[in-house]
Structure to design on (313 residues):
């Protein structure tokens, strides 16, 4: 651990500090500031030559600014002769653009992967990628961690597991929801929905028995909140006793917080992969749990050349 350096950008300083506390390792001195025209300037203010450096930076809102910070910090470390640079990206922005959704559209997730690699990252450590195949976009090793262990621990402490049904809010999230359901030995239900247009969803049907059960919606990203709110109404209409949601990345753009606060969701539980806004912190039915210990342990194992996958056995 003496040869580890933790460097943080501006996207989620509290999470970086919590990871440092878990590892008993203070954050390295690094200045990230902007010139008058908003160009980003980075200065690593301590020696990193021959060190194993972990750059902790989510590419959350403002996505482009935080992505550029990550790239420039990585370049600065490479030019400072760091032995190995690991980009720790709790929330990987642009992950929803992982394929051509229509003619003449980009695959932006691949472009971002190329940028991070070319900047000098030797490996990437991230959390609950929107699509697991994004790992293949990188030409360096990628560790895709799962937030499920942290969520399961919280669920076990708050629910009667005999009366819980885990629900996937769409067909694409079934694998994620089934994995969590297996961990707590709970049945699985699926919300059949369609998207008339980007950012909007319409529930068509509920697959599975939810009557009399506490339903837990599980997903990787909540953005507008429309899917969760519509799913909660549909599940309650089918006889569910209450509906909560456990989501890894709380993007929560636009009026999402107000929408969720006014919805029939009993509670929305987010991880701190994205730094919560003041609106999230004061919302009556939104709660944040930390993934600092999970990320910290993955960093410790990576630095010690130990297995990371065994964290999820």
């Amino acid at each position: 651990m003496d040869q580890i350096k933790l460097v943080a950008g501006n996207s989620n300083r509290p999470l970086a500090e919590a990871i440092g506390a878990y590892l008993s390792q203070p954050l390295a001195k690094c200045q990230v500031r902007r010139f008058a025209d908003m160009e980003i300037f980075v200065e690593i203010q301590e020696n990193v030559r021959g060190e194993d450096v972990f750059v902790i930076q989510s590419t959350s809102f403002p996505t482009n600014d935080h992505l550029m910070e990550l790239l420039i910090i990585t370049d600065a470390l490479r030019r400072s002769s760091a032995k190995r640079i690991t980009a720790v990206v709790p929330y990987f922005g642009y992950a929803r653009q992982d394929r051509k959704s229509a003619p003449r559209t980009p695959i932006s997730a691949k472009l971002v992967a190329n940028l991070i690699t070319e900047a000098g990252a030797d490996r990437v450590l991230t959390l609950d990628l929107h699509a697991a195949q994004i790992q293949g976009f990188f030409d360096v090793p990628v560790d895709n961690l799962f937030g499920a262990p942290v969520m399961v621990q919280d669920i076990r402490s708050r629910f009667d597991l005999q009366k819980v049904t885990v629900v996937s809010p769409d067909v694409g999230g079934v694998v994620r929801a089934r994995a969590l359901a297996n961990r707590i030995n709970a049945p699985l239900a699926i919300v059949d929905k369609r998207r008339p247009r980007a950012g909007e969803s319409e529930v068509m049907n509920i697959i599975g028995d939810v009557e009399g059960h506490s339903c837990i919606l599980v997903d990787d990203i909540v953005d507008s909140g429309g899917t969760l709110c519509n799913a909660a109404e549909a599940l309650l209409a089918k006889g569910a006793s209450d509906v909560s949601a456990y989501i890894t990345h709380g993007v929560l753009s636009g009026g999402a917080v107000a929408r969720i606060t006014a919805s029939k969701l009993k509670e929305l539980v987010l991880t701190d992969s994205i730094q919560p806004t003041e609106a999230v912190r004061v919302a009556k039915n939104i709660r944040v749990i930390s993934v600092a210990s999970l990320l910290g342990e993955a960093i410790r194992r990576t630095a010690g050349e130990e297995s990371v996958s065994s964290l999820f056995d």
Notes: The CA atoms of residues 196 and 202 lie 7 Å apart.
